[in-house]
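Let us practice reading a record.
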Amino acid sequence: MNNVTILVIEDDKGIQDMLSYSLGADGFKIQTSYTAKDGWEAIENRQVDIVLLDWMLPDRSGIDLLHRIRKYYSQLPVIMITARAEEEDRIKGLDVGADDYITKPFSVRELKSRIQAVLRRSQPDEQPIQYGDLFLDPVSNRVKVKEQAVNLPPTEFRLLHYFMGHPDRVFTRGQLLDHAWGAHVYVEERTVDVHIRRLRKNLEPYGLDALIQTVHGRGYRFSKTA
């Protein structure tokens, strides 16, 4: 991990110093910013491998900055670190495109584990997947149907990618939660149903919504056959 640069965007100097010391001791290269403005400049001007992003920043919210990161640097891993622990806040952060979400106070040991897990998931070594007319490229984060772009929110993209990589396999809501949101992020299983409906709605104009099938009493699968 000693070639990995972590950008910490956090206005609490105590947390900055603690993360710089603890993560630096493990060989990570640490950059720090106190504001969203400085954080954005750091992303644009330096080689950053992962961002630890606070929600409450003095000049603008971390969510606003995350929107901007996802628009211009869609593959840059971001972990939200925030005192906002309500389920709706976690869902909002993940839906905007955070790769993980950890609440304050937190264990540095757990944070290190999550950083490593996010970095493993973000490795750009996955191959594009074609399923009939549906094409998904996990590296460029693009979905197409017969060369027509399909714009999916980050969570729906992760769900579709997981489904397409395992056609005809039934997944429980718990399994889908662990993959799309991370095993350490605690949201209710009904959240999966909401995102499945959204994914189907995005595929409906292309006549592909029926690929996402409900298996009553078990969960969901991706299949052409009933």
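A brief commentary: Helices lie at 13-25, 36-45, 62-72, 87-96, 108-121, 154-165, 173-181, 190-203.
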